[in-house]
Amino acid sequence: MKFTESFITNLIQEQYKLDVSCKILNGYDELNFLLTDSFDKKYIFKIATEEHNPYFLDAQVQMLKLLSKSKLAEKFQHYIAIVSKEDIGQMTIEGTKYYYRLLSFLEGDFWVNQKEKSPVLARNLGQFLGEMDSLLKDFKHAAANRYYEWDIKNTLDARKNLHCIKSHENRRLVDYFLLQFETEVTPNISSLRTATIHNDANDYNVLVNGDAVSGLIDFGDMVHTSLINNLAIACTYAMLDSEKPLEVAAEIAKGYHEKMPLTEQELSLLYYLIGGRLCISLCQSAYNYSKDSTNEHHFLTEKPALKLLQQLIRINPLKAHNEFRLACGFSSLINPNDKHEAILKERQHYIGKNLSISYAQKVKIDKGALQYLYDDQGNTFLDCVNNVSHVGHCHPAVVKAMQKQIATLNTNTRYLNDKIIEYAKKLTATLPKELTVCYFTNSGSEANDLAIRMSRHFTKQKDVIVLDHAYHGTSTTAIEMSPYKFDGKGGFGKMPYIHKAQNPDMYRGEFKYGDGEAGEKYAKDVSRIIASLETDSKKPAAFICETLLGVGGQIALPPNYLKEVYAKVRKAGGICIADEVQVGFGRVGTKFWGFELQEVVPDIVVLGKPIGNGHPLAAVVTTQEIADAFNNGMEYFNTFGGNPVSMATGLAVLNVIEEEELQKNALEVGNYLLQRLAELKPKYDIIGDVRGNGLFVGVELVRDRITLEPAVPEIDLIVEKMKDRGFFISTDGPLYNVLKIKPPIIFSKENADEFVDNLDAVFAGF
Question: Which residues face 689 on adjacent strands?
Fold first, then answer.
């Protein structure tokens, strides 16, 4: 049934004895009409279907009647009774029952139309809502005790529509905030103050006149829930399209607290409640899109809501909590003079002093949020270096998989369990068909140690060929084959069974960029080592090499290098080991594994760091032949390697990479980042080289492009200045003059722009 304007005017004349003109208005749920009488007096007429409980409509009437008797009366609509003295009329048309109400019209402009929303206006909104909630604190109506999907208390129910968000990045962001709601809010809901609240002080329901709120309309979302939710909703919509959303929310909280004092607990949750409301909105909009809705009200806030959620994750929750506390007169949670002297002193007492800490001014990180890190001073950092958190800090899919499994079972591998088989199948499916057998460990160091042990057992040889400046871990065996360690400060020197091959560095090495045969030429140094072993009647047990060199200087290997080296080593009877600990799992973009860039198949692949997204998990994957030889009667047992929680974690990481197309993201964003960095090179002589693949990037800094003198300590100052600007990067390379850039592979082009723009500004200061 379409309610025409003439139908409405006739109904109004019949039931209210008013002669009016009628204009149809858009609405989210009910049908709304603007009426104007002959004296130019305006009214709002609302029609609800039988899906709307008339008892709940009565709750709205009773709430407005209570408010109409208060000092805020002029800021609310008033019900106009029909001729039968009832506030709610009903009619049945074509078998369908409808309920209708006539309300007075409130003058004012919608909040959403205010281009300049002053702090005074924000504070006044808070005062108005606080005063309203104070008036309603004892209001009760049984119909308000209902389940409602727009009640922030039910935020987690939005997960059912999460899949409707098609953008991987946006869905991940919403899922992250849902996880935080579950973690921070859900355990506290039962202890929060409750009340019957308006529940929808959005930017289309709040009316404004100058710097003051002139009214609030639409009580259709009314619900009995946590009192703080009313403030959270108002903050959410007032923050939309603001460049300083936290300041806006703090002013509203301040005004609210002046009229309806907030508790410290409520303020501690406000940030997460705002995030929850945004999640509900975005999931509902996505669901409506999936149903091909044509109601424009279903999508009014989608874009600004997404923008606000993106702003929110850049705000340290501690900073938000502290700003809300300060606005309401509570003490600060942050001590800006805290230089962490106490924790540093205790660390030096209880922790080995050679466990290093980054940065001159130490940073205490308290929380991770996808590609962001939050410290204890309220600062937010874009993580541009933590390749361990491969798919992002606290990725919700990984966290939930770990939580579920650890709540179910975690034990050693002496029992049958589906998870270890399931993970081994999925992991080996990403590798060449020759690599079929898995051994699980707890770290890359342990995995490299095991790989060398296996190669020595298979070949009956001990000598290992490594690259100069290489790093393969912290175990005794791993350090023995890491020139970065044994040649460095405190190192014990090279063991006689370890042999260093030339580092295939095309910027600083013997064979440069532009040499089409650089790979083959660098490979000849491995031939030299093999020949020297032959003179001593020895053969190599293994050649081990990172497929892109990390500590060696963020170096991509020259074309054909591994192809040539692998052929030489195998001909001499050795095993070829690919160390993928830092570069695997889609980071290089064009391929899933770094060795695939060289078009080779290793005999053993070592995996670590990103494999568990920060969970202690690593693996050795090898051929059936090598595995059979290793099965010599000595049991291989690892108490924690392959435990159910680790396997569930590894599975979750692989699933996320696949489902969110993160290898593609690493390629696209990595290429963009490399391009942006390359554009800086002509501007600054300190940039000697920009190199990498995907999101494995190095920028080598030099004082002189001819002599290649390393720019040290300049690089350390650059790293510190970037930290001060909110960006974490690090240094690497044999001469410690390479900026190491290996962010989580969820890094976006916007992140790349932020990073490069700030790096540009830092370089300009030199």
Answer: 700
In degrees to the nearest 10, what's the CA dihedral of 423, 429, 430, 434? 120
Nearest to 691 by CA among 766, 741, 759, 762: 741
Mean pLDDT of the chain: 95
Q: What is the DSSP letter of 261?
A: P
Q: In what order do the strands lie in the sheet with 738-741?
A: 687-693, 696-701, 738-741, 730-732
Single-letter code of the amino acid located at 290: S
Alpha helices in 50-153, H assignment, sequence order: 54-68, 119-135
- Residue 450 burial (C-beta neighbours within 10 Å; 0-12, 13-18, 19+): buried
Q: How confident is the model at residue 561 (pLDDT cuts 50, 70, 90)?
A: very high
The length of the chain, given as a count of residues: 766
Element (H, E) at 348: helix 341-350
Q: Which pLDDT score, from 0 to 100, does residue 115 have?
A: 81
**Mutual angle of helices 245-259 and 317-327, in 10-degree steps:** 40
Could you give the C-alpha distances from 393 to 97, 383, 386, in angstroms and in order? Answer: 52, 9, 9
Task: Convert the pLDDT of each residue in 541-551 to its tens digit.
Answer: 999 999 999 99
Dist. CA 720–CA 717, nearest whole Å: 5
Q: Which residue has the tokens 């466990």?
A: 355
**Nearest in space to 741 (alpha carbons), one of 372, 384, 391, 382:** 384
Choice among 48-52, 82-86, 402-406, 741-745 with the minimum mean pLDDT: 48-52
* Higher per-residue pLDDT: 343 or 265: 265
Give 104's strand partners. 43
What residue has token string 């998870």?
A: 419
Q: Helix, strand, or coil here: 100?
A: strand
Instruction: Give the DSSP letter string of 287-315.
Output: HHHHTT---GGGSTTHHHHHHHHHHHHTS
